[in-house]
Amino acid sequence: MGTLSIETSVKAFSSKFAESAELTRKGRELIPGGYSRNSFNFGPHAVFVDKGNGAYLETVDGQRMLDLNNNFTVNVLGHNHPAITSALLEAIPQGISFGNPSTAEAELAQILIERIPSVEKIQFSCSATESCMSAIRVARAYTGKTKIAKFEGGYHGFSDLLHISAHPRPEDSGTESDPKAVPDSGGIPSDEVENIIVLSQNDRQGCERILRANADSTSCLILELQSGAGGLVTLEQEFVEELRALTKELGIVLIFDETISLRASYHGLQGVYGVTPDLTVMGKIIGGGLPLGALGGSAEVMSSLENGKVTISGTHHGHKLSLIAGAACMRTMDRTAFEKLNTHAKRIMSEMNEWSAARNSPLKVYGKGFSHMAYAYMNSPELSVRTHRDYWRNVDGEKTQILSLELANRGFFPVHRGEFSLSLPMTDDDISSFIEALQEIVKDLEA
């Protein structure tokens, strides 16, 4: 394994982030696991942040890091962006929370409806998890059917409805042609698991066979065009087009979960594919760093929320501050902003993959080509990730973890499993330094 090993990388990480390690230890005395999000774990413990500005974080350990996590893709404008902070500073003295609607709700709704091709009506919640739950309820009411089809490796929040087969163990998951529904947590009732029909990504014949066999009981198919947490699998263009035609034929509501992929372009990733779903779930960037989810779709399918057939409500749904921050963020993310991010993304992918191929290295940087992508150290150079099971089979998990730890040790903060996202304040020099660091780590790994 060259000059690097998991042991040396963990040791260096724990030394560099010693104060974070101590805060994790203290947190575990009060909070299960030490903090309220399991995803905070990075190797042996989380990295605690003191503050952020622009594209950079400053940790409690005194380390300045280029933020390639961006709160798991939320912070598309980086940290402390003046458009958001000024909007919030103006709004807060006028009151934080009311049992009444605010003008900001229609403002953000208008922005999203104008941009996202499939959205004619929209409803806000506090998170994309909630909006995924809302999508299922609306689809069931619209079709009169109960079951939910989803892809293995697709993550749609932690609800009992959908926290199934996002991260299944290979030995529990059935065959690739007939995947088995597996709960991702204890405490999920068996009847929820039985309501899930699991599909394999990019398996055109298998998906058609399974959906046709279950058409009379299947209310919806929910999918990510690029999976956010299950290996960053990208669905193929023709496959998505065929799914649209098939679900329409079978009377199955097609839901695109664009929680993450809305950052792909001015029109979301569905705009890149040119495929229109019945419903779209949104989150992450639409709140400008504050908690916000949204469900949008055709006026016909969304009508059940107006006629009283479906009821959805929450104390903080349509929260004024989240809507104001979200509107400020989305206004700032104009076409030029998306183009800048995607230019950086394509540069990283092309330069890293050309460099890797030239040295016959198994390192791959992959994704659809927008500002959320992944690096992975494959088991051999010719392998790729086309399905969730490819991620199990083809990725060297230990070496990929070393890449993440070493990036952190050298001043870069990705997601521990190899994903990373870009923010608008990043410069050409920031991108160059990241590429150089990743190349140096691979050289050390292969030395």
- Shape field: globular
CATH class of the largest domain: Alpha Beta
User: Main sheet?
Assistant: 7 strands, mixed
**First-to-last CA distance:** 7 Å
* Cα radius of gyration in angstroms: 22 Å
- How would you write the strand order of the largest sheet? 4-10-9-8-7-5-6
- Examine the coordinates and then state which fold CATH places here, giving the name of the CATH topology of the largest domain: Aspartate Aminotransferase, domain 2
Beta-strand fraction estimate: 5-15%
State the CATH architecture of the largest domain: 3-Layer(aba) Sandwich
Count of helix runs: 16
Helix content: 40-55%
**Average pLDDT metric:** 96
> How many β-strand stretches?
14
Uncertain regions spanning at least 5 consecutive residues: none
Return the string of H and E elements. Answer: HHEEEHHHEHEHEHEHEHEEHHHEEHHEEH
CATH superfamily of the largest domain: Type I PLP-dependent aspartate aminotransferase-like (Major domain)
Number of domains: 2
Structural class assignment: alpha/beta
Structure overview:
This protein is 40% helix and 14% strand. It is of the alpha/beta class and 447 residues long. The chain folds into two domains: 6-76 and 340-446, Aspartate Aminotransferase, domain 1, CATH 3.90.1150.10; 82-332, Type I PLP-dependent aspartate aminotransferase-like (Major domain) (Aspartate Aminotransferase, domain 2, 3-Layer(aba) Sandwich), CATH 3.40.640. The strands form three sheets. A seven-stranded mixed β-sheet has the order 4-10-9-8-7-5-6, with helices on both faces. Strands 1-2-3-13 form a four-stranded mixed β-sheet. Helix 1 packs parallel to helix 15 and helix 13 (335-358) packs parallel to helix 16 (428-446). The longest helix has 24 residues, at 335-358. The radius of gyration is 22 Å and the shape is globular.
